[in-house]
Amino acid sequence: xxxxxxxxxxxxxxxxxxxxxxxxxxxxxxxxxxxxxxxxxxxxxxxxxxxxxxxxxxxxxxxxxxxxxxxxxxxxxxxxxxxxxxxxxxxxxxxxxxxxxxxxxxxxxxxxxxxxxxxxxxxxxxxxxxxxxxxxxxxxxxxxxxxxxxxxxxxxxxxxxxxxxxxxxxxxxxxxxxxxxxxxxxxxxxxxxxxxxxxxxxxxxxxxxxxxxxxxxxxxxxx
Length: 223
Ligand SMILES: Nc1nc2c(ncn2[C@@H]2O[C@H](COP(=O)(O)OP(=O)(O)OP(=O)(O)O)[C@@H](O)[C@H]2O)c(=O)[nH]1
Ligand SMILES: [Mg+2]
What we know:
Rossmann fold, binds magnesium ion, nucleotide-binding, GTP-binding
């Protein structure tokens, strides 16, 4: 295995959604297999790292847990920048939190200034499915909104029972990694084309080929 292949990949995940929907709880369960009943709203944002394996490759997830409370929303820009993917959480027992999902998505795309918003990896999580008796948003409604808004990844989950928590993060990260690799591949291809054109031009003009011996293409800086 070459040195570049051994280097680890890094993916920045940003979790957003209304206050109280369970962002911190999902992250806590995913990272530490712990759940706390009492609600301590996040102030500003926290971040933590977790290593996971995707298709045999070690990937470091840097997970940003942001505050859902309105008063912290102006901080968004700082936390969103450089994100590779985004987890949007709503609470299935709170229809308003579901209605806000697309606002969160749009606000994220505006503030993060993602270069290529088309196909940016979002995972929508309908949390608290352990509270089935209090459900206000059906599975069908969740699926429909995700389909209508660019086929966003979607799952229902429970941070309390640990249902579908790991799979939500794994799927989102796998998607982000795939996108990173595709973007790197097209960058490598355009670099190679440019080099080939340059070589051709030098040949025509009888100039020495400065690129001879240089390695072609590069692995993703982070991968
Ligand atoms: N029953 C149940 N309660 C949950 C679940 N997930 C979170 N909670 C509870 O919901 C409350 C809010 O959870 P948090 O994870 O703090 O919510 P948050 O989205 O991080 O909120 P902010 O930090 O204010 O944005 C807490 O009392 C949690 O115990 C779940 O899956 N089921
Ligand atoms: Mg929180």
